[in-house]
Known about the structure:
0% strand; Four Helix Bundle (Hemerythrin (Met), subunit A); single chain
Amino acid sequence: xxxxxxxxxxxxxxxxNQLTLAALAxxxxxxxxxxxxLPVTAALVLLLSGLLDALDGELARQSxxxxxxxxFLDSIADHYGDLAVYLGIAWLLLDSGDxxxxxxxxxxxxxxxxxxxxxxxxxxLGLDTKDIGFFTRAERILVFVLGLLTGLLSxxxxxxxxxxxxxxxxxLAYVIRRA
Length: 179
């Protein structure tokens, strides 16, 4: 589905790392827009960031430019972009006084980070958990976008808190069974 767009990017001379950094910049912009209480604009910027994030890996594969450093940069940029979105939401929640949703946001953030940590440590054991867990970054972006567009940010955060942690536990169970 992304192939025509990837070919266009290849012809334009755009590199996967450039897409990764552009996705990061848009993720940070989305976080700022959320903190400024501009949820619809933030959702659109976050959606574009997610699209670029999906394209960078595909561009790397199709252009033969996939490298371990590119994968490393992508992972780090994803985490910083996610942090910006989480901070934007935290700012909004602190401003509104919604401490319960703020607590759920912290639980969601922990689930996201521990899932990534499990993947990293499993890799050190020679286990690939990339496709383990039902909830990926794409689903996270989709839930954030829907929550921002509909004004149902608190339920979106609750879904993220549950889904991230369940997905992380799926990875943990997989590693325990294999190790």
